[in-house]
Every structure is written in structure tokens, then in C-alpha cells.
Design a protein that fits this description.
The structure is a homodimer. Chain A has ten helices and 27 strands. Chain A is an alpha/beta fold.
């Protein structure tokens, strides 16, 4: 329905899973909605690692927000950046203007955190945005190109050594795919360097890979990674990162010209924006209905919200963000009707992680799958949730082609590194 | 066959159509070949405008050079940049080293030229590389996003005004596609700006569009563009370009926040590299066999070479570069056998240009096609010549999908503009 100027204004910051699902759930509500995102697209983050590892092209895992929402006449999409939130006067400052709101949904998500070592960022890029993915792709493919140029064996080995920091789902996916690229995709294409000699180190501060998964699945994943040629280092916190490699807390040194960061996560809003209490990762302790304490007109959702259920925090994954998004939309409608919103309840539909070709782990609330069956489950689930019919078809073709040929479809280096890499 | 260290070394600079076709034609020659390119991929330039206009994704029109050439055992591919050529000692300085050669093929192609106004470059990007295409895509999509953010009608109109400078094939393709995006792809997706009000100006210094095409086809193209909503300005040389628009030689001013450059072409090697005579565009006057005067071991091909045939220069198109590439390879083989290479003869297979959905012009040595039939011819020809089976399939799906839905499949803004655009 078309927006009516007298309707309350719902301002949504962020077009990820949280923000997009709020927006969709407000389709038939008597509100004017403005969705602000700093990029023009919704990103299907669960497959972003495949863009970074040259399996998919960027547009395969992204769709323009205004295209997704084109039929929703009560919404305006703006590409802009949030500069500040003034809760007292209900205004949000953007890079290109100021917007007032009646209801505010904050869904700007998380970014990677370097535990106070921001100087590590230029040596060890993280994976959150499309530009991150293209930068990582440039580093990975560029490292093999650099190895091919080197005449000395030592310099070549340093280019053929990769460290992935953090063994959560993203770290596992990156390390597994890197091993496949080195062992299967590239070998016959180089004359001087031997990609098959590449070393892939997966370095994790904790005692196991995939800490959110049940222990047997984590153990299975570690063994599978090792069989693929990934060197898994547990209890190995990183204490230094530079252009030549990383140092571990026991003093060991791993020489590697390419370090990828899949460890810390931090919220992407400055602490000063809210006077609500926050946890160590910067997540806001929200009220049971996801609103901000003392600000019932403000909801904080997705990776930004700290919600505990059954004694532990709900996981920061896409499913959670979607559920919170739908809940926030219902809460706004409840408020409009003078009702008190219900408390948010997280429904656990299970977690899953891909390791590589034909290998994944799936935990559906106790029902566990590993290996090829899990991988099919992972594949169908991701394809199903991927937004936009055309993307699904092209992604399916890309995957089938990769599977049959071991090739990667997007081995194209774009952009320039603005760092000091040789 | 595997390379033998005693074989002569053929060094090829540039992996475009010229360089790649030399390399392939040397497959069975008793030579060691090194192909150097500053990017890791061969680019199918005839479709690059579709990446710039968000119809195709980057990897659709590019393939890694070392993947294309993986079975050719006598070749090494290096990703590196040429810094200088020393003809006297037969060495080429690269950013990461120095290579000697017995035979040198220079095929580094052309870049856009601003007729001495290099400061125009940041306001009016040209289209030669993948990064150029992504930068232009960012500008085009970003302009509509900016228009949606503006509250004043004047500022909105400036963002909805586009100037394409130069009405050769690239300029015609860009202008036609821009008109389609504005009229058909975007309209329903904006709430504040009206993309249908966008003005697309195609500005040409000469007396007609498509100067290399027969006059009736040029006239047909101009009428077709006008019917699509493109404002074609002929005899309109540009005398100034800034962030607010362009000034024409008769003093007229076109306000436009987005200016795209499809006019001048210049060679991408500095003039100082060769002591051979050059034409105004910097092209080297080569010997009839494409070698450099007084340097029979050096061949200059593709857009870098000035060759006249039947009283006029051969056109700087992909077909020419491929023919020159094959010729240079034969010439090297002739020299190795002590024979004198033949003179290069350009074979004109015809020229073609796309204007938009269902519209193209084709000139096959006098046999002319326009409209829908020409467009089919254009489509099949481009699909046929596109490198890599998988790309063809995905491109075909993308095209079919676009045709049926008027949508563009790659409307994803990546990277940051490092210029001063609002």
C-alpha cells in the first residue's frame, strides 16, 4: 500500500538479515519505513567466503535492496552512512542529512575486531563486506602470482604459506577452501611455484574448532581439515601479526605473507551511541522485547543485541537476525495498537558449517550429520535461502561446474591493494 | 610440449587479444614463451561495457590467463608491470625483476586519452580495464542513489543527467544501455527521484555516430538512440570537463554529475620506449611484417601498431589484434627457420555495434544488417568468441533473464571512489 504522510515513521539502520526482515514484516503496517544502508545491496553473508575464494562472483551473493523491496510501496531505501544517533530528540545523523523517527530499528551488525590491535587490520583483513571479500580474493590469488615470480625458494614458500586466524565457521570454510585451491585448482597452471606445496594454517585460541558446534562434530571437522592438508593449531592465541606472519602466545612463529582474520567480532556502532549496558563484544543488553531500556521506541537487533536464553547468549547468525527482525516488526505493530510487545524467543533450527567439497557438518538440535549428506543439506539450505531466483540458478551452475572440474569461476583480481604488500 | 632451456625466449608483453593470440600460435614452436600482464586475466573487452552497466559480473567476461594457457607447457605466465624496454641489450624491466628476450612482442594495448587534459580523468572515467568498469558501474548506480537522497529538484536533476563523450561503439553502447536502465530497469524502485526523467547526452566531436561504420548504419543508429531517449549532439567537441558537467566548443554547457569518457585513445607505452616514428595517437609505424624498424626481433601489434592498408589505417579492434598476434607468431617461426616473414594483411570480417535491447548494426563488407536480426547476429558472435565454456552459459542465462525481466544482474556497487564526488 502507498505510504500516508501522517503515518508514524519507522527508521531502519542496516539492510542485512535483521534490517531486511523487519522491513518485509512491516509491508502491510500503517507506517512509513525508511531503510538506510551504506551499500546498495543486501549481502548473503553465509556465502561471502566463496566470493573471497573466487568460487562465486560478487553479484551472485548480493541483490540491490531497492530491487528486493520494489513492490513495498510504504518504504524508501536510502544509501547513506550513519554518523550518530540522538535518542533524546529522536534523530539520526547520516552522512548526507538528518532523519527523524517515531520508531528506530538499529541493525547495523558486526565487524571484525582485533582485540585492541587495530594495526593488525592491514596485515590480516577480515570478511564482512563485499569489498572485504574482493580484497581477500586479491590477496589469495595475488600470493600465488607472487610465488610464481620469486626466484628464491624461501621467498616462494613465504608466499605459499597462509594463516587463517579463528576456527569458527568462517575460518573453517576459508581454510578448507584454500586447501582445495592449492591442492586441486591451481597446480598444473604454474611453472615455477608449486601450489601443491602451499601450507594452510588454521590457528585457534580456544581448545577446539567450531566452538558453537557439539564436540563430536568439531572433532570430525578437525580431522577432515587435517586430511585435506590444513594444519590446525588449537590453544594457539595470536600475539602479533605483521607483514611476514604471526606469532603465537607460546612464542612460536608462523611465516606467511597472507594472513586472514576470522577471529574477533565487535559491534559496528560506537559505544557512545547508547547509554545501555554492553557486553565485552560491545553488544547491547536489550529488554526482553529487544527494545532499548528506557527507550521503548528503539529496537536493537541482530549481531548488535545481547540476548540470553536458557542461560547462554543466542548465537550471532543469520537465523537469529531474521527472527529478531520479524519480532521487532511485530513489536512496533503492537505498540501502534497500544499493546505490550511479547518477549523475544529464539528458536534454534540448527547450525551448519561447510568444510569443503562434499564435506560439511550439520547439527539440527541433536540430530547430527557429517560428510557428504551434510554437504548436500548445506547446499540445498543455502541455495534455498539465497535471495533472488536468478542468483540461485547461476550459483547452482557455478557450483556444479566447480564440482565437476575443480575449477573456481571467479579467479579475477580486481582493485588495488592500498597496503604495502610486495 | 615441455620447454627446453636452450630454446630461444619469446617475451610477450600484454595478455589482451594480441598477446594471447601470439601465445596460442606459438604452442608447438620450439621456443620458451613468457607472457607478462599486469592483471591476472584476459579481458573480453567487447562486453566490458556490460560490466560497467551492471548487466554482467566481472568474472563473466574475464578468464585467468594461466588457466586459459595451462596446457601449453612451453609458456610461463607472470603477473607483473612493464617499467621499461631496453632494445639495445634486449631486456625488459618489470616492477619485480628484469627479463631478457630473444624475441619481443609488444602488445600492451591502448588506454583512454584526454587530449592533454589529464585533469578530466577524475571527472570522466574511461573504460579499458575491469577496474574501470567497476568504477563506472559505481558512478552510474551511485548517481541514482544520490538523486534519491536529494531533496531539491535541481540537485536531483544534476544527478539524473549523464554525459557520454564520444560516439564510437563504446559510447553508443554505454549511452543506449544507460537509457534502458533509466527508462526500464529502475523506475519503480525509487520513491523520491524519478529515473525516467534522466537525461542521457551522447556528445561527439565529429559529424556522425559510429565513424567507422557506413553512413546509412550510422544514421540508423542515431535515430534509434534518439528514439530510446538519448540526446545525440554531433559536431560538439568538449572543451571543459569538471565535477558539474561539460562545456562544448560552441559555449553550450551540459550540467551532469556523471560524465563517461569514450572518446580519445592513446597507446599505453610511453613515447620514449621506441625510437620508431609514431602517429598522433602514439601508434608505432611498424615494418610490413609488424616488426620494429631496425629491430627484426621486436614486433609491435594490436592497438599499438600503426598499419596502413589500401590507403587507410587498419581499425583498432579485437579482430585486428588477433590477426596481428597470429602473424607475429608466424613471423617468429619464420625467423627461427631463416625465412623472411611475409607482410601482414588485414582481413576485414566486418564490424558490428550494439545499441540496446534488440538493436544493433552489422556491416559485413557491404552486407548490412540493422535492428533485431543484427542484434541476434551480434549476440551469437559475442557469445561464440567469449572465452571459456562456463562463462558462455552464465552470460547466456544473464542475457535471457535480463531480456525477459528488463533487470540487470550485477547492480552491486563495490569499492570506494577516491575522488571528490558528493
Amino acid at each position: 500500500m502507498n505510504a500516508n504522510a501522517s503515518w508514524p515513521h519507522v527508521l531502519i539502520l542496516g539492510g542485512g538479515f535483521g534490517g531486511l526482515w523487519v522491513t518485509r514484516a512491516l509491508r502491510r503496517a500503517p507506517v512509513r519505513v525508511t531503510l538506510v544502508d551504506r551499500s546498495n545491496h543486501h549481502l548473503f553473508q553465509p556465502l561471502l567466503y566463496q566470493v573471497a575464494t573466487a568460487g562465486l562472483s560478487g553479484p551472485d551473493v548480493a541483490a540491490p535492496l531497492r530491487h528486493i523491496l520494489r513492490r513495498q510501496r510504504n518504504i524508501t531505501v536510502l544509501m547513506d552512512e550513519v554518523r550518530g544517533i540522538d535518542l533524546a530528540v529522536r534523530k539520526v545523523a547520516l552522512a548526507h542529512g538528518v532523519l527523524s523517527y517515531d520508531y528506530l530499528i538499529v541493525a547495523t551488525g558486526s565487524t571484525h575486531a582485533y582485540f585492541g590491535h587495530d594495526d593488525w587490520a592491514r596485515h590480516a583483513p577480515g570478511l564482512k563486506t563485499m569489498d572485504d571479500a574482493l580484497a581477500i580474493r586479491r590477496r589469495i590469488l595475488g600470493a600465488f602470482e607472487s610465488a610464481e615470480r620469486e626466484s628464491g625458494a624461501g621467498a616462494r614458500d613465504a608466499w605459499l604459506s597462509f594463516v587463517v586466524v579463528g576456527a569458527g565457521p568462517t575460518g573453517v570454510e576459508l581454510a578448507g577452501t584454500l586447501a582445495e585451491i592449492a591442492r586441486h585448482t591451481l597446480p598444473r597452471e604454474f611453472r615455477n611455484a608449486d601450489p601443491g606445496r602451499a601450507r594452510i594454517h588454521l590457528v585457534e585460541a580456544g581448545a577446539r574448532v567450531l566452538p558453537a558446534m557439539p564436540e563430536p562434530l568439531a572433532a570430525w571437522t578437525r580431522r577432515r581439515l587435517q586430511r585435506m592438508g590444513v594444519e590446525v593449531q588449537l590453544d594457539a592465541a595470536v600475539t602479533a601479526v605483521d607483514g611476514e606472519g604471526v606469532t603465537l602466545k607460546d612464542g612460536r612463529r608462523i611465516d606467511a605473507r597472507t594472513v586472514l582474520w576470522a577471529a574477533g567480532v565487535s559491534t559496528s556502532l560506537p559505544d557512545a551511541q547508547f547509554d545501555a549496558p554492553r557486553d565485552r563484544a560491545g553488544r547491547v543488553h536489550v529488554a526482553p522485547d529487544l527494545s532499548l531500556p528506557r527507550h521503548p521506541e528503539v529496537f536493537v537487533i541482530g549481531d548488535l543485541a545481547r540476548v540470553e536464553q536458557d542461560g547462554k547468549p543466542v548465537p550471532g547468525i543469520a537465523t537469529t537476525a531474521k527472527q529478531m527482525g520479524r519480532h521487532a516488526a511485530h513489536a512496533v505493530r503492537d505498540r501502534l495498537r497500544g499493546r505490550t510487545p511479547r518477549a523475544f524467543r529464539y528458536r534454534d533450527y540448527g547450525t551448519l558449517a561447510a568444510i569443503g567439497r562434499g564435506a560439511a557438518v550439520v547439527d539440527l538440535r541433536g540430530f547430527r550429520l557429517t560428510g557428504f549428506v551434510a554437504w548436500w543439506f548445506w547446499l540445498v539450505a543455502h541455495l534455498f535461502f539465497l535471495i533472488g531466483f536468478r542468483n540461485r540458478l547461476v550459483v547452482l551452475i557455478d557450483w556444479a561446474w566447480s564440482y565437476l572440474t575443480w575449477q573456481r569461476n571467479a579467479r579475477i583480481i580486481v582493485g588495488n591493494d592500498r597496503d604495502s604488500r610486495g
